[in-house]
Design brief:
The chain is α/β, with parallel strands linked by helices and about 120 residues long. The protein has five helices and five strands; from the N terminus they run E-H-E-H-E-H-E-H-E-H. It is about 40% helix and about 20% strand. The longest helix is centred in the last third of the chain and has 12 residues, at about 115-125.
Length: about 120
Amino acid sequence: MAERITTRARVLVVDDDPDQLDLVRRTLAPHFDVQTHDSALGVSNLVRQGEPDLVLLDVNFPALKGDQVLTLARRYAPKGTKFILYSATDESRLRSLALAAGADGYLSKSIQGAELIQKLNAFRG
C-alpha cells in the first residue's frame, strides 16, 4: 500500500448534475483533494483506485440509485472510507435511505459553502 503524501482528506463527489458537481468541487478544492465523477457507473473502480476518505454520493441517477451504487462501491472501498448520501430529496426520506443503505451519513444539497466543509470534516472524525 502506497504511503500517503498529503494530509488533506480525499473526497470523491459523484453527481450527474454538472453545475452541482462544479459548485461542490470549487467549494471543497481549497480544503480537500477533490475528485469528481458524473455517473453512477464506474464509481467502484474510482473508489478502489483513488482510495477516497469520503464519498459524497448523489442519490438520484438514471441507471442506478445512489444506495445501489453505495452497496457496490463499498465492496471495493478501503476500510476507513465513509459514504455520505447527498441529495435535494426530503430530509426524512434521505435519512431513511441512508440508514437502509448502510451509509455513514447524509447531507442535503441545501448545505453549501463553509457549512458543507465543516460537516465533511466532522464525518472524517
